[in-house]
Amino acid sequence: MSYQEYQKLCEEIARHNRLYFEEAKPEITDEAFDALVLKASELEKLHPEWVGENSPSLKMGEMPISGFKEVPHAVPMLSLEKAFTLDEVQAFIDRARKLLEGKPVAFTSEMKVDGLAISLLYEMGELMQALTRGDGKVGSDVTQNIKMISTIPSKLHGKHVPELLEVRGEVYLPKDAFQALNHEREIAGEPLWANPRNAAAGTLKLLDPNQVAARKGLTAAFYGISQMSEPKVHFQHDVVPFLHTLCFPVLEHDKHIYTTAEGLIESAEKIKAKREKLHFGIDGVVFKLDNLHDAEQLSATAKHPRSALAFKFSAEQAMSRVREITVQVGRTGVLTPVAELEPTLLAGSTISRATLHNEEEVARKDIRVGDRVIIEKGGDVIPKVVAVDFTARAHSSTPWRMPESCPSCGTKVVRDEVEVAVRCPNHNCPEQVIRSLTHFAGKDGLDIEGMGDKVVRQLYAKGFVKTPADILKLNSNEISQLEGFKEKSTNNLLTGIEKAKKTTLDRLILALGIRHVGTATAELIAKKVGSIEGLRNLSHAQMQQIHGIGEAVADSLVAYFQDPKNQQLLDSFISSGVTFEVLKVTESKISGLQIVLTGSLETMSRSEATKRIKERGGIVSESVSKKTDLVVAGADPGSKYEKAKKLGIKIIDEAEFIQITS
């Protein structure tokens, strides 16, 4: 490889670093990125004269966050050297033993959380400063944002609180909180986060701490001490238990000490075996020298400490073939390319579709119809195409192009440079209308039982519904013309529609599917305006008085409700008999309790259960934490149920929930 090609490789690595750390929008997997860095490092060993100040082997990767004060680290916050094989772990042990002049060495094994590295400084038990890693020497001061994370103590408690303490850890988003956040973004018509790590990083970069507080479920795990006055901790295996006594959130602790590479690898395999059951994401295991005094004696390289090693797990991947690339039109008009795949088993589920996010990603990865591709679950959650097997590509294949016209209505598409999106500007586009109607009637809207996507499509095709108000005016003659609808199913749907007319103002606002408006925003607006008439007269001045609503949301709301067509829609709701229930809160056995719903309920919908809790003074939470008082578990409860059991939180079934809320 020539020097010019090496420089291009360095530029590519720098670009991926920026996407990962600064923009929280990675385009390649950790494994693919590690392979690029390894390639650069091997070239630098062959050509040491090529190494400069921008060499990948010398760069930390992450840069200070724009808009935040930059602060030097008192103790450098270095990244860890990575290993993938037994030989690499053995070399790490041999090097430590050699540097300690043959002294016996022992190591701990800890889960490596896939989050955002953070360093917290406490003086006299008070949180004084929170810094991101930055470039390892200088980090961004995110103290106010960190104080908004309820699980991180602003004041330390315990028998032995040091006068000075600096701790290191990871801020992360649990899997269920990540899914809830993406669900909320989907409702609001906003781009989804690719994985929990990106969501956590993106949250800490928000300039308004109140927006950080609104991101429910964000938490942290602490595992290291970089500075500490008396009392001293002398061994790494005592660090996590000590931090736990000071009320820091920590992870499950492996108390074993390992002296061989085989033992460390075995510990990593045990952790990997339970990876899927964890409520948070991990991407490997960290091996640390147990004796902290010895660890201090080992000098660091320019980039890595010599006393610790990150043993990385490879992502679960599978091969499939792209049968077709289709284009979905969302209710906000965004066109999203989707890879239609040959059904493939991956991480316990069959994958037949994978989002390709946008036109740029398809072009960058050069994904084409007929290609054999590597797929994986991003953050163990969202299926994605990682790479193309170019050796298996047919000579006749051609690059994919985003259509210039909307596949639903034929309108010429426009490109939104801010969101890197292609959008259909026609608000009367059939697919946009259908998806908006489906949202209005669905669980995130008025929750009309029996009115799913297939039913809405039939109603639209027959000309019975064109606006949300039309759904509320449906009659038995129209419904009975639908495929599969007899007298009983027709009456059931009519009952569901009548029931949906008795709603709350925030739920109606949410059902309208206004861009950028999710559950929390809808509740804020409803509390502010109080009526349909209030929506009709919504102004920027009112929006500015609502804490937590930004300029983009305010613009979207005011534009929506000042549109004459939407003013008519509000009139139609009133003429259709829509009424708003005023939430009457009464004292009960669950007043003040923080309650989490999980699994499928049989006798009521999730929205009905939520309303039932709020009416009785309870607080509904999306994720389980130490602050959770009660978990209501229906059928197939999932990870929230498992986490509640682990934390010893009281769990009740649906029957008991009905009993205590009656």
Account of the 3D structure:
Helix 3 packs across helix 9 (261-273), helix 12 (430-441) crosses helix 13 (453-461) and helix 17 packs across helix 18 (519-529). The protein is built from 25 helices and 23 strands. The protein has five domains: 3-50, Orthogonal Bundle (Helix Hairpins), CATH 1.10.287.610; 70-312, D-amino Acid Aminotransferase, Chain A, domain 1; 317-410, OB fold (Dihydrolipoamide Acetyltransferase, E2P) (Beta Barrel), CATH 2.40.50; 430-580, Orthogonal Bundle (DNA polymerase, domain 1); 594-661, Rossmann fold. Strands 11, 12, 13, 14, 15, 16 and 17 form a seven-stranded antiparallel beta sheet that branches. A four-stranded mixed beta sheet has the order 2-10-9-3. The radius of gyration is 27 Å and the shape is globular. Helices cover 37% and strands 20% of the residues. The protein has 662 residues and is α+β, with helices and mostly antiparallel strands. The model has no long low-confidence stretch (mean pLDDT 86).
